Amino acid sequence: MTELSIGQLSANCNVKVPTIRYYEQIGLLPEPPRTHSNQRRYTEQHRQRLAFIRHSRELGFPLDSIRELLEMSDHPDQSCKTVDTIARRNLDEVKHRIRRLNALKRELSRMIEGCAGGQVGDCKIIGILADASHEKCLTDRH
């Protein structure tokens, strides 16, 4: 693969140009060499690393975890125990988010089922949303 401009890399990996620049700024993606006209030129290694970052983000890994995973992948002779720990930590967070989303789904369904139409002044949904104490909610945390 020949060197890519930032626009070509963006299109190839389906990552926006400002995001690529941000990943460079925070050190997830190494700064590429530049041409004599100061244009960034990305290599296959940049493309692979950006694809890794994008895939990791799609799976919900936070940037700090991605940084750790990239450091681990740069040293392939190490044990993958730390990688396993990072993945398990992310899985636990995903499970937590699913529980929270299911609670939100139940609460919203209950609110909608309680709505009888009619006037906004009598709307159960508005009444529940206006209740800052959450006394009308199924739970106080959502």
Word description of this protein:
By secondary structure, the protein is mainly α. Helices cover 58% and strands 0% of the residues. It folds into 2 domains: 6-59, Multidrug-efflux Transporter Regulator, Chain: A, Domain 2 (Orthogonal Bundle), CATH 1.10.1660; 82-130. The chain has helices at residues 6-13, 17-25, 44-58, 63-73, 81-113, 124-130. Helix 4 (63-73) runs antiparallel to helix 5. The longest helix is centred in the C-terminal third of the chain and has 33 residues, at 81-113. The radius of gyration is 23 Å and the shape is elongated.
Number of domains: 2
Beta-strand content estimate: under 5%
CATH architecture of the largest domain: Orthogonal Bundle
Instruction: Label the overall shape.
Output: elongated
Biggest sheet architecture: none
- Number of alpha- plus pi-helical segments: 6
Helix content: 55-70%
- Secondary structure tally: strands: 0
Low-confidence stretches: none
Tell me the Rg in angstroms. Answer: 23 Å
Give descriptors for this structure.
142 residues; mainly alpha; elongated
Helix and strand topology:
Layout (H helix, E strand, L loop, with lengths): L5 H8 L3 H9 L18 H15 L4 H11 L7 H33 L10 H7 L12
Short overview:
The protein is built from 6 helices and no strands.
